[in-house]
Design a protein that fits this description.
heterodimer; A: FAD/NAD(P)-binding domain; Rossmann fold; five-stranded parallel sheet; four-stranded mixed sheet; 12 helices; B: mainly alpha; four-stranded parallel sheet; FAD-dep_OxRdtase_2_FAD-bd (chain A)
């Protein structure tokens, strides 16, 4: 026996979750499972959904106004080129449905400009509602508030950067102590928890709830600004309530500035997606890696019509040393790139560790990188090549397996960090891979 | 070919001909040395966002500090283990948080062991208290011999007051009740296994709690497995060691583990697989033993240990068998299910919901991914009680909001906390399976009372 399902998605990030949701959506009778090893790298993610911020061949021309305009010019092999721009639009609409009113930006094709914690602006297609009042295209003056114990956001510096970058408003920064936090390196979850639970804290003015104490401290610094930006630690489960309370007490709109990892907006997106998975009846197994696979007998492959490559019969999940078989009809590989360890490297080779799918790369490792740190790094594009069905291709451009598709950063041919396309590619390829897997498993 | 693939050393004549061997950066370890693992940490801090203690306790510096940073500091010998390591609750959530495979909980366990060994005064109240809590297994037989007296004495407010004043054991909690008949007594009285089957055999690691406090869970396992035709062995066993790891009592844990590995390895020889009903016990056998000890057969015991429900899912058609069955009686209605941290870390957090969804008329509602907060002996310590309840608050809220008034979990201490925080009666998944597969009549007797 094995744990039996129809579609098995390996990987629990944005691509994997989207693939599982899309499979369940495309074929409601199909049983879908998502297996994820480590917690997804969504906790590292800003929570912003970028489609394409910069053109890969001409980044120096600055941020793209309309990402969809640029999709048709992408080189062959780019994941967007593989799935086509209609699929990108469908995937984004699918995301909008799942996200509901937690995300904004769907009123326009144009990229929004969201200020980041460094004071730069990032072109993005969708953004959490918590950042909506902070957009750089908005001309209202802004006060940015940083906390003494949170060195990742230096508010005066970020404000100066924003003004220098030509933001159409004046920005001012203030650094305050966070009521209730005395540790120099308190965790971001600590701030969020204090506000979420509105815990009682002691300040110079006596004992009050954390939200009120924070608002009182900020009010003393607030001038004519009609909006106030905080680092993105304003609550977790009750984030909307925290923001509303602060805004009411301050008499100004309140927004969050996305932060580096670990990131609350990333965690909230993770929660949103996993709630949707539960709602859709997708079974989730987390905390254990898929380590191996078995192919079907030769006659089973022949009966399948031999649609290119072997057929995966089942995969093996390692449960702290015990090997557990999981069987499905269709598989989606969404294990991430070099950072997520879906693609790995050794001194001699770059490889995909579960199915050993072919990863195109130069034989000489000195050709894997260029000396200019910010240059066009070949390793940034490392990943699987795929056909238009997103089936990984071997060295001869034949599908590795007839029932395996790939999605997200495990795919190669694009540099998500340079072109700001990580979330969009995960959504589009996850959507296509999941939909096809669901349809075929039916 | 690049020089990195075949490097040459200009300073050593003739070196070109020799086969290249990568430099051994760290000397061969003679004892536990976790510094190499520390280098895998790139300080993304994801572990910190998963730490239930750091979220509510402003004093606790979090798993990244306790693990890789502490072991980096210790590269120089003049650094002591930081005493905050005793605030870690050993929930082990940091392990599955880490995207870079840093062995965090192993580092914490080792650091705690070293701290207790070298820095803690063995005559201190804290040491004595921790030793008593960690070695509950040693006291339990005495209490179990006189369960009614023990329950009476432990329930007295004067006992609780003394426990708090003398030992620092919180008086807020009620001591778990001891069963009037232990599981092993019941097992012996019934004459051992009722099924003989050389082809389907399991060795049951029942752990302390289901032996002394909730034998109904252990009996449920026996009835469910016998329903599927398994011959059950109940080998001699000691505590799994979990409370000892959590208190840095590694020598106590080593002694217990040695017994368990020896006895369980013998059961493997007899053709049995090992099955546990408590998620911390299975975690201990599967992960902590191989990380911390190297007795003969430690690895094979780890590799052949299973969670009781998962074993049936993989080896039997459990869901097929449950299909269309229903459960009699009011006590099996809908459940508010909490996945214990140590289930979560074994990838078993979704299992109970999946399996029970097949049974007609009952549903298990997941109450979310927060930690219950008690973490074994952690929430029993006076100084941790408040932290423990703050961590649990989210779970209590979700249990209250769920459409159920009975709790469900696989961890004995999580169930104490669930009961303590909500007043709900708490059951184990195996009890529900027993009721569905073999009827609840036999299970009703000896059931523990809520509150």
């Amino acid at each position: 026996m094995a744990i039996e399902d129809d579609v098995l998605v390996i990987g629990g990030g944005l691509a994997g979750a989207t693939a599982a949701l899309a499979a369940a959506d495309a074929a409601p009778d199909v049983r879908v499972r998502l297996v994820t090893y480590k917690q997804s790298t969504l906790r590292h993610a800003s929570g912003l959904i970028d489609i394409l911020g910069y053109a890969p061949d001409s980044p120096e021309e600055g941020p793209l106004v309309d990402p969809f305009d640029a999709l048709s010019d992408l080189p062959e092999g780019h994941p967007y080129e593989r799935v086509g721009s209609d699929a990108v639009r469908e995937a984004l609409a699918f995301f909008d449905d799942v996200a509901g009113d937690a995300y904004a930006g769907d009123h326009t094709d144009a990229n929004a400009l969201v200020p980041t914690h460094g004071g730069t602006v990032k072109p993005t297609a969708r953004y959490p509602v918590s950042t909506a009042d902070g957009l750089a295209s908005d001309d209202r003056d802004a006060l940015l508030v940083g906390f003494e114990t949170l060195p990742d956001f230096e508010a005066p510096l970020a404000a100066a950067h924003l003004e220098a970058a030509g933001a159409p408003f004046s920005a001012r920064g203030a650094t305050i102590p966070f009521p209730g936090v005395v540790r120099d390196d308190a965790k971001v979850t600590r701030y969020a928890h204090l506000l979420d639970q509105d815990e009682t804290v002691t300040t110079g003015a006596g004992e009050t709830g954390a939200r009120e104490a924070l608002a009182t401290t900020v009010a003393e610094r607030l001038g004519d600004e009609s909006r106030v930006g905080f680092p993105a630690v304003l609550g977790d489960e009750h984030a909307a309530e925290v923001r509303a309370d602060l805004a009411a007490a301050l008499g100004a709109d309140v927004f969050e500035v996305p932060m580096g990892p670990p990131s609350l907006p990333g965690m909230r997106l993770e929660d949103l997606l996993y709630d949707a998975l539960e709602e859709a009846g997708v079974r989730v197994t987390s905390g254990v890696p898929v380590i191996d696979y078995e192919t079907a007998e030769a006659d089973a492959v022949a009966a399948d019509g031999g649609s290119g490559g072997d057929r995966i019969e089942r995969v093996v999940v390692d449960r702290n040393g015990t090997e557990i078989p999981y069987r499905a009809d269709q598989y989606v590989l969404a294990t991430g790139g070099l950072v997520g360890k879906g693609v790995r490297s050794e001194r001699e080779r770059v490889f995909e560790p579960i199915f050993d799918c072919h990863v195109p790369h130069a034989a000489d490792r000195y050709d894997w990188f260029v000396d200019d740190v910010f240059g066009d790094q070949p390793y940034a594009r490392f990943g699987l090549a795929s056909d238009r069905e997103l089936r990984p291709l071997d060295a001869d451009d034949e599908p590795e397996f007839s029932n395996l598709r790939a999605a997200g950063a495990v795919l190669g041919g694009y540099d998500f960090a340079a072109e700001k396309s990580g979330a969009g590619v995960s959504l589009a390829t996850g959507y296509v891979a999941g939909t096809r897997a669901g349809e075929e498993a039916e | 070919m690049s020089d990195a693939e075949q490097p040459t050393d200009d300073h050593v004549p003739g070196a070109e001909e020799e086969e290249f061997e990568p430099i051994q950066v760290f000397p061969e370890a003679e004892e536990m040395d976790l510094r190499p693992g520390a280098d895998n940490c790139y300080k993304c801090s994801t572990c910190d966002t998963n730490c239930p203690v750091a979220e509510v306790d402003d004093e606790f510096p979090g798993p990244k500090f306790q693990g890789p940073e502490q072991w980096r500091l210790k590269r120089q010998d003049d650094h002591d283990i930081d005493d905050s390591v005793m605030k870690c609750s050993n929930c082990m959530r940091c392990d599955s948080a880490c995207p870079s495979e840093v062995p965090l909980s192993q580092m914490h366990n080792t650091a705690r062991g070293e701290y207790v060994e070298e820095q803690m005064d063995t005559f201190s109240r804290e040491y004595l208290r921790n030793r008593i809590l960690a070695n509950y297994r040693r006291l339990a037989p005495l209490a179990a011999a006189f369960p009614r007296t023990a329950n009476f004495v432990m329930g007295l407010s004067v006992t609780k007051w003394m426990g708090e004043k003398l030992l620092g054991i919180t008086s807020e909690r009620d001591f778990p009740e001891f069963a009037t008949e232990t599981f092993r007594e019941w097992w012996t009285k019934r004459g051992g296994a009722k099924v003989e089957n050389p082809d389907k055999r399991i060795a049951y690691f029942h752990g302390c709690y289901s032996n002394y406090n909730t034998p109904e869970v252990a009996k449920a396992l026996v009835r469910v497995y016998e329903h599927f035709g398994y011959e059950i062995m109940v080998p001699d066993q000691s505590c799994s060691g979990t409370p000892m790891f959590a208190n840095g009592m590694l020598e106590d844990a080593r002694r217990a583990a040695e017994t368990n590995v020896r006895e369980l390895a013998a059961a493997l020889e007899d053709g049995a697989d090992i099955v546990a009903s408590c998620s911390s016990c299975s975690m201990s056998l599967r992960q902590e033993y191989p990380e911390l000890f190297d007795f003969e057969n430690t690895e094979s015991v780890a590799e052949n240990t299973w969670d009781a429900v998962e074993y049936l899912r993989v080896h039997e058609d459990l869901e097929g068998e449950l299909e269309g069955r229903s459960v009699d009686g009011d006590e099996f209605d809908d459940f508010a299910y909490h996945a214990p941290c140590h289930s979560r870390n074994q990838g078993l957090d979704g299992q109970t919901i999946e399996v029970l969804s097949v049974i007609d008329g009952i549903e298990a509602h997941d109450v979310g991914d927060s930690c219950s907060g008690i973490s074994g002996t952690y929430g029993w310590k006076e100084e941790n009680y408040e932290t423990s309840m703050k961590i649990g608050e989210e779970m209590f809220e979700h249990m209250d909001a769920a459409d159920a008034e009975t709790g469900l979990t696989e961890c004995p201490t999580c169930s104490m906390q669930m009961e303590h925080g909500t007043g709900y009666e708490i059951k184990h998944t195996l009890e529900v399976l027993e009721a569905a597969l073999v009827g609840s009549g036999s299970a009703a007797s000896g059931r523990r009372e809520a509150g």
